[in-house]
Write a structure and sequence with these properties.
The chain is 82% helix and 0% strand. The chain has helices at 6-28, 32-64. This is Stage III sporulation protein AC.
């Protein structure tokens, strides 16, 4: 069964807010390279949180349609 928790949504929203703040500060300071690296790091963290849920979803679909 899928275990989508509301805390994951809040964690992703908080991560997005933090990354946006860092990106804005770094961009205005003229550190464009660091700003883009910050965005990439945030994307990597978000993917690490979301990919297990996507795999769990595929397993549930496979179980429903009995595709073993």
């Amino acid at each position: 069964m899928l275990s989508l928790d509301v805390t994951l949504i809040f964690k992703l929203a908080a991560l997005a807010i933090i990354i946006t703040i860092f990106y804005t500060f770094l961009k205005q300071a003229g550190r464009d390279e660091y700003a883009y690296m910050t965005v990439l790091a945030g994307l990597a963290i978000a993917l690490l949180w979301v990919i297990p849920l996507i795999l769990e979803l595929f397993e549930a679909v496979r179980a429903v349609f009995q595709l073993y």
